[in-house]
User: Fold Poly(A) polymerase from Prunus armeniaca.
Amino acid sequence: MESSATLIAPPPPPPPQASARQYGVTRPISTAGPTEADIQINIELEKFLIEEAGVHESKEEATKGEQVLQRIEQIVKDWVKQLTSSRGYTELMVEDANAIIFTFGSYRLGVHHPEDEIEMLCVGPSYVNRDEDFFFILQNILAEMEEVTELQPLPDARIPVMKFKFDGVPIDLLYASISLLVVPEDLDISDASLLYDVDEPTVRSLNCCRAADQILKLVPNVEHFCTTLRCLKFWAKRRGVYSNVIGFLGGVDWAILVARVCQLYPNAVPSMLVSRFFRVYTQWRWPNPVMLCALEEDELGFSSWDPRKNSRDRTHHMPIITPAYPCKNSSKNVSQSTLRVMVEQFQYSNNICEKVELFKAEWCALFEPYLFFESYKNYLQVDIVAADVDDLRAWKGWVESHLSQLTLMIERDTLGMLQCHPCPREYVDTNKQCAHSAFFMGLQKKQGEKIQGQQFDIRGTVDEFRLSVNMYMFWKPGMEIYVSHVRRRLLPPYVFPDGFRPPRPSRRTAQHQPDKLSCDDGEVCASGSSESSLKKKKDAYMNS
Assistant:
């Protein structure tokens, strides 16, 4: 018979939640699930994303994307078979010849939007190369197809890519030749042995898919991750901080940041994750890296991100590390200026989320568009022109890829005293006959610095930038770039909604922007000619 002591003894405590699988390199901040209030707030967020934000594909759009994907896969399979046959391989080799398509980016992560490109990687056998077979033979095949428009090969990009539209669907197509004579249909893209005996561009191409797969494996709840990522991508575009190429963050960066928050709050619902996202990154001590898993050991000789070994890695301002070997910092383009802008946006949105959780604000307040052209008194205007639309597409892509360098050059030459805020959106004056595009950067002096009366002369910086851009290997007559300083009151009307300049803010409103650069607290000289002569020059090419 059991003793009374045994009968009244408390039951053993349940195993702690920490004993469950740990996601990420640290323990979670909280394993708490949603309260009833959280569930209600989450319902409101998901309703907003569906009914007002429109971040989901329709069934028709999703079906069309799948059909385009299948069509392109058949095209590359036929291409490899034709090459195999034309090079005299045996009938058995021709029969087995194969290429397969993997997706990455938003499509692979399950957050694709109709306006997003479908990012694809074609994996082919060792005897089908990138330079001639992909960027010449396959390119010509695509160019002859009436479904294909706006074909733009970029063989010299850091990750070589062919951009085009297939039946109106934007496509980014990469190629990787692996060390196999026959590519099996069930190829495991996560297998590190695929990285043997391939060059760096091939490793980068393969890792686009490998990283996407790893992200999905490293989050506790894929559905919650996807909803949160859809929300944050929409937010980043509304607030003007979605663009890796000009110095903010791109798709994989936002995915890794969201995934890390999912790891830190494994049982949270999307509304909680959105709120915690801004809380975490408002307090994050950059340049401490964001990582989803520990760095893998160097097995194959490829260099991974490691500031202990690589001095260049110690200069990165906002390291966001990809989770597949070799691990890289996907946000190398971030500068001091663009980091400042993003941290300010995190702080702004953190305050709104706190109000939402107290039922003092609605979700729509979080997604108010950033009023870029009302935020600064001084701007740099970068005008890009070309002889026709096709030339402009290639020329604009080249110039845009160098805009992050212009930000770094200005920071360098002004010792960080003049800060830049590049706008990711391009603008076009539809009233002009020439092929034209324009980008803008907001300029302000470093906050808290007393530089009364100082003039920022960045004419030499702009000349250096233009010189580097004009070294474009595929330059054609008519491709020109003009960089000029423009004050807010003189901004061209085509940058405003419907082409109309909004009424100027009151003097009282203007007085609440003491740190913006103006005639009173600093001048900017960005071109060698006066504004009037610059206007004549611009009129000359804009009306040609």
Notes: The chain has three domains: 36-52+219-366, 59-213, 372-499. Residues 59-86 form the longest helix (28 residues).
